[in-house]
Amino acid sequence: MHKKVIPMLCGAMLLSGSQWVLAAADKLPASTNVKLGAAEEFCSEFTDPKWREAQVIDGVEIQESRMCNPDNPAEIAAFVKGTNNISMATLMETQLAADAITVGNDMDGDGDPDHYIIKLEIAELNGHSPDMKEPTTTFDIAPGIQPTFWVYAPKTRDMSTLSLYEPVANPLLRAPSPVIRVEQGDIVWIVLENSHYFPHSIHLHGIDHPYMDHGGEGNDGVGQTGQMDVMPGQSKTYVIKPRQPGTMYYHCHVQPHTHIPMGLQGIFIVEENRPNNWVQVFNVGAGHVRHPSVAVKEKYAAEYDLHYQSADKELHEMVRSANDPRIIARRMNQEYDITEAKPDYFMLNGRSFPYTLRESLILMEENKKVKIRVLNGHEEEFALHIHGHKPMVTHYDGVDNGPSSYIKRDVHAMVPAQRLDLELSGVDDGLNSFGQGVWMFHDHVEKSFTTNGIGEGGDISLVVYKGYMDERGIPKVHGMSLAPYFTKEFWQGKYPAWQDYDAWKSLGLPEISNKKQAAFVPPPPAPAKADGTAQPAAAEQSSFFGQLFTGLVLGGLGYAGFTNRQRILELFGKK
User: Fold this and answer.
1) What is the pTM for the complete model shown?
2) What domains are defined for the chain?
3) How many C-beta atoms surround the C-beta of residue 565 within 10 A?
4) Residue percentage of the chain with pLDDT more than 70
5) What stretch of H or E contains 338?
6) Three-state SS for 101?
7) How many beta carbons lie within 10 A of that of residue 315, not counting itself?
């Protein structure tokens, strides 16, 4: 029996070996080496290191911020005391207009002001200019990525750009629109000075406000029900005296299906009333609140505002497609169909990864707690996931659930316009926290990991514990190099994400050969059987039997050679 087994095994080996021979003949191309352009520095030396330090300016206590790009401390002082209560030296270190924030008197004697006049303008970022082909007043969300935005901004006195020769938007003009903070029970006038070429308004979403003000004008920001929209060059004052604290929302209610996605949206916070409670009226760009309220400091070591939003590239490019507002209006209001839209850019506090790492980190310390206020500014659902932690929800849409209803989760789902207040704890017990380190957080809707379809990008950022950050605000990560993410080529889709993972670039791109390749010609369709089904192609019918026959023949030859090996050896020995 063993005499029959040997040729069968030889035939089977040769049958499978024929595929190896074919593979060897069809040699794979080598990997090409895609070269990147110059990578930006993670954190430049432009920022004054003193901005990161805890300090007191004009009597305002400002927390330290170890971010790469911290807020200007002089602006924090102005946001707290008002531009009418700070020194001229401090005001000149900002770009705020002298009447940007007017803080009134302490009318109830509790040590803090009770009347605020807050002035907002509307700015366009990455817009069209008749003077140049490239966008002007630029704002990059990632290297080389510049969607057009409309944003509310604190009233400024200076140029919209850094200089005549630098088209980059000055720091007060940026996405997202600024977080606004007021105190419960204060009288607040919000003045919208429409510096844009379209009508706009402010709707105080979730904020306690009357339908009509004392002058008989509409106060809800809706043209169809209360007051005409604010036309270009005009202004409108919204008057509130909010009775309930919480995390709220404000946005434009003119053609909201396009104006909100264009960036006219922001977080609005009513702080709990406390004595001597000077709130930080603006938190430009959201992120770390460097002067938390008295109520927040009673429970938390720090506070962060997280504003998530997305952008449809078609809409944002349409806005800069012409100079004539009538043409832009026709394209946006009559031709653009949001029901067919899809988001291309996903941002946290106005930036996409890796720029989120420069200014939207959450800095933690073991055994301490921070307060996080989250807004879903997308047009779709959102699912916040913080690695290594299970934050506790304390408020939905600005309403305190009560301690008996607080809930811990590691994924927090939110619908558009919804707000959550979260308590993030650094207690290392396997529930609140898994321990110190550098932990990622992001929207777990997977397309939010991308920027124009390329990943990893989108709204990714990090929770970084003390000791895991250097003095310049760079997290001490352990893993792959982040340098490719700081190049334009990566976001242009030119660089293979895994190319440099190993020395031989096994996961790079194959070299493209100039050698002419033979065209692939598909086999003719098989004739139909009598029952109408397709007859197997001849190649398919004979492939197995042909290979089996070839294997048996080669096996038989191999067996013959094996049984007559002595004769063969003697024959060659004689030679």
Assistant:
1) 0.85
2) 47-490 (2.60.40.420)
3) 10
4) 88
5) none
6) strand
7) 21
